[in-house]
Design a protein that fits this description.
Number of helices: 10
Order of helices and strands: HEHHEHHHHHHEHEEE
Radius of gyration: 18 Å
Helix content: 25-40%
Distance between the termini: 31 Å
Largest sheet: 4 strands, antiparallel
Strand order of the largest sheet: 2-1-5-4
CATH class of one domain: Alpha Beta
Strand content: 5-15%
CATH superfamily of one domain: Ribonuclease T2-like
CATH architecture of one domain: Alpha-Beta Complex
């Protein structure tokens, strides 16, 4: 693909033109003393299959799944989660509690809790109409009756004082970069197939270097397993730069996917 040969600086320019709101850097106004973000991306058919198998009420984005000529379109945005700030950890908060409650964590930030079962009860984010139009293309749960963007901002964004357009604009940019990377191409080219984690690791290494492999967590469901989500740890200081080997924050947990898993297809 041509875009893989574009230099980092030109790629950033290209994406800033195509994603309204990206041009302003993402900056935390409060609790900025954290090390990394987790970019959570869904493999949309796998997410919907999990909802179906668990006999959950299917959200509209799963009911209305359609095949796409460009299979990278199935890599969609779940959220962007700042890690536990050190100033909050000093109040006796551990990472498990932080990831469960986010901005509602007590004693701080102690903001109103956003509940996954009532996402649309969270306040409107106030994002611009132009960005909202772009967001729904990459975050199918945004808007409508799912209100994923409200939930994500209330739980992971509002207490940091992120400007909503900058917060969601960063997600759009990052997801676009992953879609156009070697891992994105791997997922698209093996759509509907069973793949090995080793082969996917090789694609990550090709794009971002061997050390970056440990920054990618792959989450699966079912037996035989299918992919549902990719969680990518990105250094806080690199969040406004094009992704490179220096962008990632390797961790110890590779996720729960087995050695082989399926890349599910749209529909049930």
């Amino acid at each position: 693909m041509i875009i893989r040969t574009i230099t980092g600086s030109f790629l950033a320019t290209l994406l800033s033109v195509s994603v309204p709101g990206y041009s302003a850097p993402l900056q935390a106004q409060r609790y900025s003393d954290f090390d990394h973000y987790v970019l959570a991306l869904s493999w949309q058919p796998g997410f919907c299959e999990t909802m179906h198998q668990n006999q959950r009420v299917l959200p509209s984005e799963c009911q209305n799944q359609q095949e796409q000529a460009d299979k990278t379109q199935f890599l969609t945005i779940h959220g962007l989660w700042p890690d536990l700030p050190r100033s909050i950890a000093r109040q006796g908060v551990d990472r498990q509690r932080w990831m469960r409650f986010g901005c509602a964590t007590r004693p701080v930030p102690n903001m109103p809790e956003a509940r996954a079962s009532r996402k649309c009860s969270a306040p409107d984010t106030g994002i611009s109409p132009s960005l909202a139009e772009q967001l729904v293309k990459q975050m199918p749960g945004a808007g409508g009756s799912s209100c994923l963007e409200r939930y994500e901002y209330a739980k992971h964004g509002v207490c940091f004082g992120f400007a909503p357009d900058d917060y969601f604009g960063a997600m759009l940019r990052l997801n676009s970069e992953i879609r156009h990377s070697a891992p994105g191409a791997f997922l698209a080219s093996h759509y509907g197939e069973t793949v090995s984690r080793d082969a996917l690791n090789q694609a990550i290494s090709k794009a971002y270097g061997e050390k970056s492999v440990k920054a990618f967590r792959f989450m699966c469901h079912g037996n035989p397993a299918w992919l549902t989500e990719i969680q990518i740890a990105i250094r806080a200081g690199s969040i406004n730069e094009p992704l490179s080997p220096a962008s990632f924050s390797p961790g110890a947990h590779p996720g729960n996917c087995p050695a082989q898993f399926r890349l599910d297809t749209a529909g049930f």
